[in-house]
Amino acid sequence: MKKIPIFKLEFESKFVNNFNKFSKKIFKSKSLSEGSYVKKFENKFSKFVKSKYAVSVSNGTAALEIALKTINVNNKEVIVPTNTFFATIIAILNAGGIPVLCDNKKDSYEPDLNEIKKKINKRTKAICVVHVGGIISQNINEIVKVCKKKKIFLIEDAAHAHGSYLNSKLNAGSIGDLGCFSFFPTKVMTTGEGGMITSNNSKLINKVREFKNFGRSSNPLILKSIGSNYKISELTALLGLLELDRINDRINKRRNIVLRYKKNLKNNKNYEVLLQKSGRCSYYKCIVKTKKLSSIIKKICKKKNIELTGKVWEVPMHKQKIFRKFIKDKSFKNSDNFSSYHICPPNYPELSIKEVDYISSVLNKI
Ligand SMILES: *Cc1c(COP(=O)(O)O)cnc(C)c1O
User: Fold this and answer.
1) What are 313-330's pLDDT values in tens digits?
2) Is any ligand 1 atom within 6 A of the Cβ of residue 81?
3) Does residue 60 line the site of ligand 1, with CB under 6 A?
């Protein structure tokens, strides 16, 4: 078998031709920053994730930072899983907030509900949930309830969860007060760099719009708040529009791959492929719990020409030395354990079922 890389990304000729065609219109329009294509992209994205509003921003990290500044977490605590990507914590810190980390549930990638509840106090401004690998937690209803009861905001890091839903009412990006998406090349859809903030709350979304555009008031000459510039270009929006034309196909391909792994590994007690319990997942990652240390599995796969993809996550946030001075708790045993006992085998739409079968056969022999 030829080498199976960590990541592939292909744009079919129809995609490239359309990009060429419409980019000519953009060049002629002379409006290279936010114009009609950005509007179209935001509208189409909000329809896709079934949120009332969507505002484009320069990347997923900016989306989180703006969301947290919009609800003003300055000097307030934000409850967040230790098992996340460092961008989530960076955004909290850059918004002036204090990250309060939660340990995972035992043998799980997601935080324990009781752990979240225990950490709520008078200084808590928000809970930030992360839909790891695109999977929306079965606990999400309970988390929404807790937030309502305690009057704290719910922010979704939906960087993995484009198009994920648990049911028709629970769509990633509009479950909480603000949802944050990333369009980095490895994600479910891409614009190279880019991000989106979604919400059903017009007041919050107006604040987001103000903030991403320097902090301008309705009079563009007058500043209302001190924001920054997080706008995107028309060409970025065009990429996003074309990606939205093919995203459902690509999610289906990811789904077929994950279900194939599930089938291929089902009789092997060393592995458990994790799936969302209902609705649709974006299948951004195929998360496989392992009985053997993932470092050992990784080495063997490498010898067999297979590169496993990035884990979720290899280094939880309490293990990042640079964050130590900002966090109180230091011991997160379940998270430490999970980080060593899971793998994410290749799972991208460009992967063939034959390759999935080969990877599975290698895994089954370990
Ligand atoms: C990718 C990612 C981000 C950041 O998105 P960028 O667009 O790369 O800034 C934030 N959170 C999670 C969980 C991510 O995977």
Assistant:
1) 999 999 999 999 999 888
2) no
3) yes
- Residue 1: the pLDDT is 83
Sign of the Cα torsion 22, 25, 27, 29 reads negative
Pairing of strands 98-102, 124-130: unpaired
Give pLDDT tens digits for 117-126.
999 999 999 9
Which atom of ligand 1 sits closest to the CA of residue 91?
Answer: 10
- Residue 210 near residue 227, CB atoms below 8 Å: yes
Evaluate: CB of 88 within 6 angstroms of ligand 1: yes
CA distance 160 to 148: 25
For residues 273 and 269, what is the distance between their CA atoms, to the nearest angstrom?
11
Question: Does the CB atom of residue 159 touch ligand 1 within 6 A?
Answer: yes
Structure tokens of 44?
């189409």
Spatial separation of the C-alpha atoms in residues 358 and 131, rounded to whole Å = 29
Specify the pTM. Answer: 0.98
Measured from the CA of 59, which atom of ligand 1 is nearest?
Answer: 7
Helix (H, G, I), strand (E, B) or coil at 313: coil
Closest residue by Cα to residue 289 from 315, 262, 256 = 262
Strands across the sheet containing 288-290: 271-273, 288-290, 342-343
Going edge to edge, which strands form the sheet with 124-130? Answer: 53-57, 195-199, 178-182, 153-157, 124-130, 77-81, 98-102
CA dist 87 and 14 (Å) reads 34
State phi, psi for 29 to the nearest 5 degrees. -75, -20
Rg (CA), the chain: 21
Which runs of consecutive H residues, i.e. helices, occur in 95-196? 113-118, 140-150
Q: Which residues on adjacent β-strands are paired with residue 77?
A: 98, 124
Residues 265/258/143/84 CA torsion (nearest 10 deg):
90
Query: Is the C-beta atom of 77 inside 6 A of ligand 1?
Result: no
Give Cα separations from 81 to 225, 262, 307 (angstroms): 30, 26, 27
Rounded distance from Cα 189 to ligand 1 centre (Å): 12
